[in-house]
Amino acid sequence: MTPEYAMKGQFSEKSNVFSFGVLTLEIAWKLWSEGNISELIDPMISSDLSCHREMLRCYHVGLLCVQNFVKDRPTMMVVASMLNSEIENFLHQNNHLSLMRKLCWITHSYKQAK
């Protein structure tokens, strides 16, 4: 559930972006916490180092999608472009700290829910 919906009952065009980010991060977190993070990558291509960069790209996009403020989230069209490598360098230096805080919050929430 998006923060804006939980707090104010507002639905926005970026609510689906938030859901996509949550789903992406939940899958990665579940596999990582079970010690199966390598299952995210097809074994046929896992030796290719570029696929690991692509996996990190997916994490970063997922983190961008779950930002608290609607204005800070990308649109689904931008998400698709980032995942297709059409947009490079989408993580700016000043975003890293807030994104890492968000990941810590998600991790803490997930552990509490168990």
UniProtKB/TrEMBL annotation:
Record's keyword annotation contains Nucleotide-binding? yes
Entry GO MF terms? ATP binding; protein serine/threonine kinase activity
* Keyword field: ATP-binding, Kinase, Nucleotide-binding, Serine/threonine-protein kinase, Transferase
Q: Which residues does UniProt assign to the signal peptide? A: none
Q: Which domain of life is it from?
A: Eukaryota
**Family matches, as Gene3D superfamilies:** Transferase(Phosphotransferase) domain 1
Q: Looking at the keywords, is Transferase present? A: yes
What are its GO cellular component terms? Answer: plasma membrane
According to UniProt, the name of this protein is Serine-threonine/tyrosine-protein kinase catalytic domain-containing protein
